[in-house]
Amino acid sequence: MYVPTRLPFFRSMESIIIEQQEAGKRLDKLLADRFSDHSRTYFQYLLEKHLVLLNGEVAKKRVIAALGDEIKIAFTLTPEISLEPEEIALDILYEDEELLVINKPAGMVVHPGAGHPSHTFVNALLYHCSQLRVHKGVSYRPGIVHRLDKDTTGVLLAAKNEKVQEKLTALFSSRQVEKEYVAICIGNPGERRIETNIGRHPTQRKEMAVLEGKGKQAITEVKTVSFDGRFSVVFLGLKTGRTHQLRVHLQYIKTPILGDPTYGNVALNKKQKVTRPLLHAKRICFAHPITGKRIEVCAPIAEDMRQFIGSSISVD
């Protein structure tokens, strides 16, 4: 059977460099640990289809990675996942010919993946935006420029075409997008700037953690606006965009987000009958990628958080 030595041109590729703690591991396991949205089986599929490069050459299925190796992954859809348009209601906060911003509800997954092959924001976006197309080998996340966790609510920005998607992605990469969140925390984090490195947890590989000398820089600005002796209402400025950054940072300073099943206090979550992390993406601000006009969009606080906060505190 012919096996190519180089990968055909794919526009939707991601590059990583193998770190010390990853060296010596099989590539399929390493990638599943690094990209927790996907399973080991998914990366075995990509390897079988010759969609992973190791130092510029197509990687073999059982290859062992070494420190400093460059890996390029052509993320694509598996046969069981089909990006079909679905008529799903969207709470649209802003829209023009190039992009839109929605108020994402809790429970909505942003893009299809393992365990969520359909009924995602991408499926809704494809239905809403007739000009947005899925091209094999180009993108398996059409229109997506950033993410919110499944149970995080609030502002979610998307592009209506590939050109704008590329420009918005560049704005996020260069930290030219302002993002502000509201959270309800256990305890009082006060007012501070949290600056650490965040990377994959050394033993709990589906989780992230603050690491010393490893991972990537993560910066969060914290401002407490109310504290009742048990819980705080907190504004959070996201200066970088690491996976689970806000949840990890608030756990790190021992004031985790109420309702967080992974980084929070499970017993207290149950006692308070809170079933999701009380985290809301409140505001996004950026320069329009085509017109240059300043766009600022705010999302009203989700009802479960509103009831918990009460009417005496202004978070709008």
Descriptive tags:
3 domains, Pseudouridine synthase, ten-stranded mixed beta sheet, 316 residues, alpha+beta, 7 helices
Describe the structure.
The protein has 316 residues and is α+β, with helices and mostly antiparallel strands. It has three domains: 13-74, Structural Genomics Hypothetical 15.5 Kd Protein In mrcA-pckA Intergenic Region, Chain A (Roll); 92-173, 2-Layer Sandwich (Pseudouridine synthase); 178-277, Pseudouridine synthase (2-Layer Sandwich), CATH 3.30.2350. It has helices at 27-34, 40-48, 121-128, 162-173, 245-252, 266-271, 303-309, and strands spanning 13-17, 52-54, 57-58, 70-74, 92-95, 99-104, 153-159, 178-186, 191-200, 208-211, 216-227, 231-238, 279-287, 294-298. Strands 5, 6, 7, 8, 9, 10, 11, 12, 13 and 14 form a ten-stranded mixed sheet that branches. Strands 1-4-2-3 form a four-stranded antiparallel sheet, with no helix packed on it. A hairpin with a 2-residue loop joins strand 2 and strand 3 (57-58). Helix 1 (27-34) crosses helix 2 (40-48). The chain is globular, with a radius of gyration of 20 Å.
How would you sum up this structure in a few lines?
The protein is α+β, with helices and mostly antiparallel strands and 316 residues long. Helix content is 18%, strand content 28%. The protein has seven helices and 14 strands.
